[in-house]
Amino acid sequence: MRHSTIPRRSRALTGTALAAALLISACGGEDGNGDEGGNGGEEGGGAGDILIGTTDVKVTIDPAGSYDNASFLIMNQVYPFLLNSQPGESDVEPDIAETAEFTGETEFTVTLKEGLTFANGNELTASDVKFSFDRQTDIMHENGPAYLLSNLESVETPDDHTVVFHLAEPDQTFPQVLSSPAAPIVDEEVFPADELLADDDIVAEQAFAGPYVIDDYSFNDIVTLSPNEAYEGLLGAPENDSVTIEYYSESSNLRMAVEQGDVDIAYRTLLATDVDDLREVDGLNVIDGPGGEIRYMVFNLAVMPYGTQTEEADAEAALAVRQAVADILDREEISEQAFLSSYTPLYSFVPEGLTGANQALMELYGDGSGGPDADRAAERLEEAGVETPVELHIEYGTDRYGEASADEYAMIRDQLNETGLFDVTIQSTEWTQFTEERTQDIYPAHQLGWFPDYSDADNYLSPFFHSENFLANHFSDEEIDAALIDQVTEEDPEEREAKIEELQYMVAEHLPTLPMQQGAQTAVTADYIDGVVLDGSFKFRFGSITAE
User: Which GO terms are recorded in the biological process aspect for this UniProt protein (predicted)?
Assistant: First the structure.
């Protein structure tokens, strides 16, 4: 193993000065990153200035327009929530709310704290809360999280400090939804009601009421945060002086940055081999957290082979194609070779460890024990009248889901093609283009990953398989819609668990998506960094981070 000693910072940079130094350093050096960091070191004072490196590119910091982990990472720092969880906890409690409780079977009432304001001085009242949720459902952006609010009928504001949510059906997950990407509270005096607001305008207007504000912002380049003195929520004042996020295009550069001390923390995404190596490097710590992340393949039921918009449209044949893919793929081989077992095989839609998780796909596809079965795939295709080899194109993105995606999808291609039943082509597309094209009926099949909004099985079911799902893959089934509502309204825990298990079998019969791998949370930090908490809430909060 390679070893090195991580140098401590000799001077501190904050705010604009730090951003400028990083931008200048990006123009030189072998890896595009200079040797000046953001940590306060001996001269930083307080808890210092924290510099985080990531390859995880975001879409937008407008809560109505993004449903991805990178964007939500920023939102968690700068927007307030009615309910939230403290670092180390996954259960939610009032954040900017004073109280929050069910006041009826389909009624949830929140009372806001007194004297709340945004960083720009505007008051934060019940009207802003209603505006934030109405805006989500009115815009219903194709890349947004409004699907999480499908059970929300209306929002009422009896006074400036009271918000009453009226639900269509009883919903035991609704308190968790209020801490999700659908729930950041925005300033109604700044955000338009019917369209997205550009990131630069959000920053210029300082429309923030979370623990931090954004001082400097360059899209997928640098974001600099400083404590928000107006924040009056659960998480309290940040323990550091500032946090800067620097975006790297390659995981190899991110590894070099944390190893050489150019960043204090590397978070999403390093190669599994790099994480293994860095565990042995003097001066670095690897922080592991519970894994709710999954990797999966989406089939577009309109343009996949035999899809509804193709000349040879045949629902039975299209289903046989999807099922044959599930029969052939060897998740264990992909886990070991592409991810060095840092991801583990996933055989259902709800990941292992959550209540109601099962292995429906293992039972229904392949050899029945998790292995591939090409003969079974061939039988399915023949019975459905499918001509082989089936031509199938799959799109993936290395800049979004890590460089290991190239190995992962090369193995998927090879496993399918080696049977002679498929003729698969693959292509990698930059994330900004990918996220637009995946909803435009361009990709027959494509890669996606999921980092949960909250730790409940429904978060792996309703957003994907309700008729109004975010996948835009043309999957819709009335029976599944009813079953999704049934399980989320069930108050008896044992009955709900049974319904979640049955739902996974129902979806597995249709197979609109194919779960592949389940991963863990990982961050690599310099040894002078403390307070990095990766917990079951799946939220990385910056306020607890300190530099000693």
Answer: peptide transport
What is the structure's pLDDT at 7? Answer: 32
* Residue type at position 118: F
Residue reference for tokens 């150019």: 262
Distance of CA 302 to the CA centre of its chain: 25
Q: Give the distance from CA 296 to its chain's centroid.
A: 13
Which candidate, 35, 10, 11, 31, places its Cα nearest to that of 22? 35
At residue 343's C-alpha, the angle toward residues 264 and 468, to 5°, is 100
Q: Is 163 helix (H, G, I), strand (E, B) or coil?
A: strand
Range 69-75, long-range pairs (CB < 8 A, 24+ positions): 69/268, 69/451, 70/268, 71/181, 72/181, 72/451, 72/453, 72/539, 73/245, 73/540, 74/214, 74/223, 74/245, 75/181, 75/184, 75/210
* Tens of pLDDT, residues 260-276: 999 999 998 898 889 98
Please give the class, per CATH, of domain 15-77+216-290+521-547: alpha beta
Kindly report, residue by residue over 470-527, the tens digit of the pLDDT: 999 999 999 999 999 999 988 888 999 999 999 999 999 999 999 999 988 899 999 9
Give CA–CA dist 460/455, Å, rounded: 9
Given this model, what pLDDT does residue 34 score?
A: 33
Helix (H, G, I), strand (E, B) or coil at 457: helix
pLDDT for residue 88? 84
Q: Are 215 and 242 in contact (CB under 8 A)?
A: yes
Q: At which residue do the structure tokens 């929140």 appear?
A: 110
Answer for the pair 469, 463: CB distance below 8 angstroms, yes or no: yes
Termini Cα distance of the chain: 27
- If phi over 0 gives left and psi between -120 and 50 gives alpha, with beta otherwise, what is residue 88? left
Q: How far apart are CA 508 and CA 503, in angstroms?
A: 8
Kindly state the average pLDDT of the residues 51-63: 95
The residue among 319, 36, 85, 75 whose CA lies nearest residue 183 is 75
Closest residue by Cα to residue 466 from 425, 424, 427, 503: 503
- pTM for the structure as a whole: 0.71
pLDDT of 401 reads: 87
Q: Which CATH superfamily is domain 292-520 in?
A: Dipeptide-binding Protein; Domain 3 (3.10.105.10)
Ranges of each domain in the chain: 15-77+216-290+521-547, 292-520
Q: Which residues contact 384 (CB under 8 A, 6 or more apart)?
A: 314, 316, 317, 319, 320
What is the spatial distance between Cα 126 and Cα 156, in angstroms, rounded to a whole number?
Answer: 9
Kindly tell me if the per-residue pLDDT of 206 is higher than 80.
Answer: yes
Helix 478-489 to helix 493-510 angle (10° resolution) is 160
Distance CA 452, CA 43 (A): 39
The torsion angles phi and psi of 306, rounded to 5 degrees, stand at: 70, 20
pLDDT surpassing 80 at residue 46:
no
pLDDT of residue 460: 95
Evaluate whether 15-77+216-290+521-547 and 292-520 have a shared fold.
Answer: no
With a pLDDT cut of 70, the percent of the chain lying above it is: 91
